[in-house]
Write a structure and sequence with these properties.
eight-stranded parallel sheet
């Protein structure tokens, strides 16, 4: 922590492949110019609620391959420059409805290999610039009808290896930019007639 306090111009910080189990709440406060932070492949079980709040210039954040089971609702607040967020390979069982609020420049969100069984209807609602959303290998049994509404720039959506039994008729409506949709290895038994209507760019 003392080392980081004397590195105010640091732009890239790679702490991946270590054995960190926790982080002090103010450990990143003195490096406000940070653009890339890699905390992947550690043993983090939780995050302080405001740990990233000073990182206004952060563009990439990797929290993949940790042991996170829950996220504070405000943990990503203030990260208005963030473009890529990796949360794959954790133990996330739920997401607070507002956890991604304010990430208006986010382009890639990776949540694969978690334990999500449900999603709040509005969890992605502020991600208007999102292009890639990876939700594969979770435990999703159903989707709220409006969960993807507002994602008009989304190009890739991966939902394979979940437990989906049915898709709401309008779940993909509004995804006018979607080019790739993966629904392999679910438990779908039927499809509504118009479930893919509006996906005019699907390849």
């Amino acid at each position: 922590q003392e080392l980081l306090q004397h590195s105010p111009r640091l732009q890239v910080l790679d702490l991946s492949e270590n054995k960190l189990t926790s982080l002090p709440h103010n450990v990143l406060d003195r490096i406000p110019l940070l653009e890339t932070l890699d905390l992947g492949s550690n043993k983090l079980t939780d995050l302080p609620g405001k740990i990233f709040s000073r990182l206004r210039k952060l563009q990439e954040l990797n929290l993949g391959e940790n042991k996170l089971s829950d996220l504070p609702a405000e943990v990503f607040s203030g990260l208005s420059s963030l473009q890529k967020l990796d949360l794959w390979g954790n133990k996330l069982r739920r997401l607070p409805a507002e956890v991604f609020a304010g990430l208006s420049n986010l382009q890639e969100l990776d949540l694969h290999f978690n334990e999500l069984s449900e999603l709040p209807a509005e969890v992605f609602s502020g991600l208007r610039n999102l292009q890639i959303l990876n939700l594969k290998s979770n435990k999703l049994g159903e989707l709220p009808a409006e969960v993807f509404s507002g994602l008009s720039n989304l190009q890739e959506l991966d939902l394979h290896f979940n437990d989906l039994l049915e898709l709401p008729a309008e779940v993909f409506s509004g995804l006018s930019s979607l080019q790739k949709l993966n629904l392999r290895y679910n438990s779908l038994t039927r499809l509504h007639a118009g479930v893919f209507s509006g996906l005019s760019n699907l390849q």
